[in-house]
Structures are given as C-alpha cells and as structure tokens.
Amino acid sequence: MGSIVSMVNSPGLGDLMEASLRLCAMARQFPEHQVYAFAAPKTYDEACSLLLNSEIDYLFFSDRITDKFLAWMPWLGGGGSWEESWGSKSPGLVYPTIMVPTYPEWNENSDQYILSKEVVDRTFFSLPSEIQEQSRRKLLELGLDESKWFIVLHMREDAYRSAPGHPRSIRELERYFDLIRHIVEAGGQVVRLGDTLMKRLPDMPGLIDLALVPQSFLTQAYACSTARFLFGSSSSPAIIATGFNTPSVFANALNTFSFLSAPKNNIIATKKIHMPDGTVMRDRATDNNIYAHEQHWYGKADQLEELTTAELCELADLMLERTCEVAGWTFRPVSPLPVRMVDGKVHPDEIARRNSWARIYFTDVKAELLR
Amino acid sequence: MISEEMSDAWFAAGKFEELAECFRLAAQKGRSPRAAFQFGRGLMLTGRVDEAEAWFRRAYVKRPLRARLKGGSARHPWTAVCLTMLGCFDGAALGEIVRRGAAAGLSPQNWFVLALLVAARVGTTDDALAIVRQFIPAAALPLRALSLVAASAPQGSPVSDALVEFVIARPFDQQQVMLLDLLRKPYLSEDVATLGRLLKIADRFQGSKIRDELIQLGKMFEALPSFRSIPIIGEDLAAVMRVKAMRRLSAALGLDPADSLDEFPLAARLIPVSVTAREEWKALMAAKSKS
Predict the structure, then answer these.
(1) Is B233 within 8 Å of A47 when comparing Cβ atoms?
(2) Tens of pLDDT, residues A192-212
(3) pLDDT by residue (tens digit) across A174-198?
(4) Is B255 in CB contact (< 8 Å) with chain A?
(5) Helices B108-117 and B94-104, interaxial angle, to 10°?
(6) How far apart are CA B139 and CA B108, in angstroms?
(7) Contact status of B3 with chain A (Cβ, < 8 Å)
(8) Cα separation of A18 and A21, whole Å?
(9) Closest CA to A228 of A184, A173, A176
(10) d(Cα B96, Cα A336) in Å, to the nearest integer?
C-alpha cells in the first residue's frame, strides 16, 4: 500500500477547503493509497472542515516547535527547515495547492484543473456517519421540516474577518429578505449559513438561521450537502457545495475563485462592475478581465453594484427550474471512482464528462430564455 | 512584635506566607493575643480558614482586660477587627458584618481578609467582591490579592470584570507587568481556565506588541473547549493547541516551557480519521498495550 502525504494549509477557510478538495479529488484516483494530511488549523471551523474530506486517513497536527521532530520522519528527509524539507527534499509530499493532473487525455494542463474538471458532477466530500446523524437531529430541533426541500443561503457580510468594504462582501442584505420569502412561497425552506458575528435577520417563517448557532460548522456543512441548492456568493460555502456536488448560485460573485469551483449546473451572477468608460461589465464579460478581480476594488467596493431583489428572485427561479426533480432533503453519496480501461487509461466517457464543463452565466441564461 | 503598619506594608508587598509565618512563634507561645489574631489573619491569606478560626477565637478569648471594658477596643483596635472576623464564623448577617467592619475602620488588609471570610463562610464570591470593590482602593490591592481573586470565580462572573478594573486602575506602565505576574501562577499550575480569563484583560490595554500577543493567546486558550468538542479529532487537536498556547505564553512570561509541561510527547499527534484508520489505530494500540 502506498501513501499520499499532503500538506493542507492555507491562510483562509475557503482556501484551506479548496486545498482539501483538491487532495480529495486526487486521492480518489489512488484508492489503494493511505492519505496522511499535515494540517495546522487555526480556528474551529478550519479544523472541522478537514472532516469533510473522507479520503484523509490520518491527520497530523503539530506545533511548529516540532520542526526537528518532523525532519526526522522518513518521508521528509533529513535536517533543514520545515519548508525546505517539505519543498525541495521531499518530492513525495503532495501540496494540494500545486497539484496537477497527469492524464494525457486532458486538453489543458493547469494546476487548477484537478479541481475544476475533476469535480464536474461528482461528489467528493462526505461527512462521517455519526456527524450526519447529529447534524440531522440538530436541524430538526431547530425546526427544519424533513418533508420539505430547503435551500442554503450564504451572504458574505461586510466586515467579515474585520475587513469592512471588502469587494466580495455583500452590503445590501435587505435585498435578500424578499428572496427568502420567495423561496418559502415556492414551498421551500431557507437555512442561512455563516458565522456568529453576522447580523441577525428578521424572524421570517421558513427561515432557520444556523449562522448564529455557535460551533455549527459541521451542521452547516451537512445542511449544504442535503440542500436543494446553495444560494451563495464568492465565499467558503461555495467550496463546500462543490465538494458535495450541491448545485449553486454564486450571486454577487467576484473573482475567478467561484468560477473555477463551479460544478456543471451552477449559475454565476457577478456584481455589476462600473468601468471607467461608463459601461457596466458583468457575468461572461468578466472572464479573464482584470476588473473582475477583488484586488482591483480594494477601497472602492462601493463602485460595485449588487444584484437587485428582482434579480435575486429570478436567479432562484432559474435554480428551482434546474433542480425541479428534488422533493425533499437530498442525500448525495460519494461518486464512484473514475472508470479506467484495462490499459489504465481513463474511459473516454470520463474524459468527456470532465471536458463538458463550461461556466454558466446568469445573463446568458436569461438571454437564452428570451430567444 | 511586628507593628500593624509593618504588617500592612507586607500585605501591600504580597508577602502572605511571611505574614503567616512571622507571627507563628509569638502566637504559639501564647503570650500575645494580638499576635494570635495576626497569625490567624496570615492563615486566612494563605487559604487555611479552619486553622484561622481557631486562632481568631483564641485571640479574642485572651484579649486584654481593658479591651473588655466599654470603649476598650479603642485602646486595642485589633479586638474590634477580630470580633468582626468572628462574626463570619458565628452566623452574623452579611450586612451586620460589613457594618461592624466599617465601624472598626478596617485597613485594606483587614477588609481583604474579611472578604475572603465572607466568600468562605457567609455569602458568595460576588458578596466578597462587592466588599473588595467598595472598601479597598483598587491601587491598594497587592498582586497576590489579585491572584486570589483571579482564581476564585468562573469565567463570565463579576470577578472577571472586577479584575479588569483592578489592573486597569494601575498606572499604564504597571498594567502589563501586573498582568504578566498574575499569569505566572496559573501558567505553572496549568490552570487553563484562569489563564483564559486573565488574558482577556489585555483587551483593555493601550496598543503594544505584548498586548497583541496576549490577546492572541487569550483567544487560543478560549478556543480550547470548542476544539475539544469536535468529533473524532477534537481531543487530540485541543491537546496540541494547548501545548502551542502554553509554549507561546512561556515566551511572553520569560519562563521555561518545561516548567509547566512535558511537551514533546504532546506537541505532535497522528490522528486516525477514516473508519479504516481508526480500526487500524485501535488494533495498533491494543497490540502495543499487550506488548
């Protein structure tokens, strides 16, 4: 039995989960290997997020004082600093952030593709069964009706991580209130995801506010895995939904982050970007455009126009249409392994699936409907 | 014989053990009832309530004849103080005890001992704290007294707020020194709850590097219970986090990390996560314990 030894560390929760998802996608290709993940989670949520990766066999936690101890480990080679040992002297160690696929059939070869192609219509994340049961009970206790479908809603609020005016944040929360009512009127329920520092929403029938429940990360992940779809933005829940293959809307999105992590049926609706020449850029036009990157808007976030309530409801309708087969809570089992042929090559159907992925933009879908 | 002024000076310097020991001989020889009272007070300061009661009683029974006469306590003010202390053992009401204390014009040392007695025998920690806040100027409370207050109550109680007040009442340049000193004892005894509570005080300091480090450490200690609650990996993760926080704190306090923990076996953990790994690990541990 071989081993995959990987370092899963990142500055933020979303990046960490993305690294974990890459590792998960990669490890699935080598079912006979044991997976060791080296992690140093800084927060409760980061630590919990590692449990979504069902491919990890062993987690290795350590304080940095044990650098020397780590250096003695057989796979790290001898001596040197942590980074030195891991980077240059230990070619066997996998960094999920720079992992690349090795399939010759792939028509492109970017370090991002292990995620964007591999996750197309595939479920990789899975919660341990005991956590699933606990989370299910918690949701029922909070009043979620098991006989009805629900969506998960995440609005990356302004001032998250003490950064007010962040370009990826959403300032017009009130615009989402009618969206919540719209979903409930359509026969569904809404579970809000987030953290305890978020603003309290007004009480609304059919709304369960998990964000304000302390230490509810795993329950939120479970909700995301069983929801009809995620109504999210450019933030961590997008990765959770991608890992669980939960269809998603990325509303008020910005950055390539959410685009690359979008499974096949997701809809991307960017913020409306006011260009210097007076035009407004959004959705497909933001592809490979420097103006669509958050770095360009630091300190100028007020120039980014957020979607209106009508647009948010319209997006929800499009997603309801795309997920019309869902009647209640959805269980999405881990997808079977890729089908390989006797010569070891990946089956052409599998290649076709991966390459079938294309970004779907809100304004394109609307235009198509009008035609 | 040590004067009351000298005794108060020792109290202000936080020399509680010395206050207990230096009166022992004189008290045990039985010649001085005042020494017996002072010895009892020292015992209170070092946490020996039952012994203190016996010495307070002995001192009061043997009080000078003049002190028994009407107005005699003016000549021997310690007798009024002793009577106030004894009230705590004899079931006097809190209001009555405080009234007697105020009438006797207690010194900060005596008020603090009375507060300890109230916490131990009469009321609650909150009652004792109310006495400290009302009758002792914050700047007159020695560090040792603050340590006792810090160790006396659970997080979120009024004690935590009071501690902040006491430390912040000091001049700016003493605040950090005082907090670092306060942290030493719980650090050495690995009292993580008290550490977490004390580190919160740094929130109120003016900006400095050590302030930021202490706040960060406070968050680490505060997060330990939530880490521990994570299924499957929580216990191991919290153990590593605890070692990490203690090591960082040791640097801030200028202490050797080995003083509080044998960290090497704790600082790195391999944690089985998947069902297969957990079974494998269990079998491995069983084999190890057999051998």
Answers:
(1) yes
(2) 999 999 999 999 999 999 999
(3) 999 999 999 999 999 999 999 999 9
(4) no
(5) 170
(6) 11
(7) no
(8) 5
(9) A184
(10) 78
Cβ of A66 within 8 Å of Cβ of B268? The answer is: yes
In this complex, which of B223, B226, B267 lies closest to A66 when CB atoms are compared? Answer: B267
Most confident of A312-316, B27-31, B239-243: A312-316
What residue has token string 């962040």?
A166
- Are residues B237 and A41, on separate chains, in Cβ contact within 8 Å? yes
AA identity, residue A258: S
Measured between CA atoms, how close is A25 to chain B, in angstroms?
A: 16
Q: How far apart are CA A5 and CA A86, in angstroms?
A: 10
- Domains along the sequence of chain A with CATH: 3-116 (no CATH), 129-332+358-370 (3.40.50.2000)
In sequence order, which residues have a C-beta less than 8 Å from that of residue A281 and are 6 or more positions away? A272, A273, A275, A289, A291, A292
DSSP string, chain B: ---HHHHHHHHHTT-HHHHHHTTHHHHHHTS-HHHHHHHHHHHHHTT-HHHHHHHHHHHHHT--HHHHSTTGGGTSHHHHHHHHHHHHHTT--HHHHHHHHHHHT--HHHHHHHHHHIIIIIS-HHHHHHHHHHHS-GGGS-HHHHHHHHTTS-TTSHHHHHHHHHHHTS-HHHHHHHHHHHHHHHHHTT-HHHHHHHHGGGGGSPS-HHHHHHHHHHHHHHHHHHHHTSTTTHHHHHHHHHHHHHHHHHHHHT--GGGT---TTTSEEEEE-SHHHHHHHHHHHHHHHH-
B218-221's contacts with Cβ under 8 Å and 24+ in sequence apart are: B220/B244, B220/B245, B220/B248, B221/B192, B221/B195, B221/B196, B221/B245
Contact state of A50 with B267 under an 8 Å Cβ cutoff? no
ipTM of this predicted complex? 0.83
Test B231 with A62 for CB contact under 8 angstroms.
no
**CB distance from B124 to chain A under 8 Å?**
no
pLDDT at B100: 92
Please tell me the pTM assigned to this model. 0.76
Torsion-angle region of A289 (φ positive above 0: left; ψ -120 to 50: alpha; else: beta) = beta
What SS3 state is found at A363? helix
Q: Do A238 and A232 meet the contact criterion of CB atoms below 8 Å apart?
A: yes
- CB contacts, 8 Å: B282 with chain A: none
